[in-house]
Amino acid sequence: MAVSVELDAYSGEAPITVLGSVTPPPSASTFATVVWINPQGVAVATNIVPLDSLGDFQTTTLAGCTPAWTPGTYTVTASAVSSGATASARATFQYSLGVVSADNVTAKVTPTVVSLDGNVTISGTVTACSGSVNYTSVVILVRNPGGATVFQDEVTPGGAATFGNYSTTMVTGGTALWTPGIYVVTSQYRSSSASTSPVFATATFTYGQSPATSSSASPSSTQTSTSQSSLTTTLPPSSTGQSGALPLVVYAAVAIAVGIGVAFVALRSRRKGS
After folding, report:
1. pLDDT tens string 125-139
2. Which residue, of 76, 96, 116, is where some domain finishes?
């Protein structure tokens, strides 16, 4: 078995690639175990990688993400079991401290304006300082304008090596917590071997009534206004601000009263004469 490191020296956050081979090639499916060991004898990374048909293998880890990556001489060991026998080999490289990036996460909401009943997609990207997004997760929280949690999910990002992406979809509405206003989406991420403090990203969307819902709720008030308008336009206003039909009613009443009075006086005069 033979193993080698791609470069002789690395610094800071850097991908370290190890190449190896087993001769003769194994006749059955075989895996090689590759371990990176720091100057203090602590294993900082372990990868299990399959051998191809020629007996070759290649694997990569990201240096510098944990405190275990101290400066000095590192040893890489590789081993594999083939035909009942164990083969092994080792190589060394130098590592020095440098600028190390932390975990990173982004968040995006689509659409940014949502009606009473709709779907919201939350997506983003992650960068794992641990060297791989595999077996990591993004925790997603959605809070209403009052700060109450209306949605929560945990999704596994997909991607190669240190970079990945995630996505989830939720349905809005359905409970009394869904009040109109601005909602805040928080995506939280921490890679498996990075710092205990997660990184965050936020995004917002507006939730409320749709234009169709608003127009369908308004006919009652519109009908009330129309009804009031028809009543006020039945009788045209006079110069005094009263309806022009009112004086006719008054005049008719007065004429009837006068006629009754005249008839009563004439009747009394006739009785006295007899």
Report:
1. 998 876 678 888 999
2. 96
Q: Which amino acid is at 148?
A: A
**Angle CA 111–116–121, to nearest 5:** 30
- What are 99's two structure tokens? 């600028």
CATH number of the domain encompassing residue 62: 2.60.40.1930
Last residue of a domain, one of 188, 212, 236: 212
Total number of domains constituting the chain: 2
Listing DSSP states for 118-180 in one string gives -EEEEEEEEE-TTS--TT--EEEEEE-TTS-EEEEEEE--B-STTEEEEEEEEE--SSTT--S
Structural domain span for residue 9: 2-96
- Mean per-residue pLDDT for 225-232? 29
48/141 same-domain check: no
Segment 154-208, tens digit of pLDDT: 999 988 778 899 999 999 998 999 999 999 999 999 887 555 678 899 999 999 8
What percentage of the chain exceeds 70 in pLDDT? Answer: 72
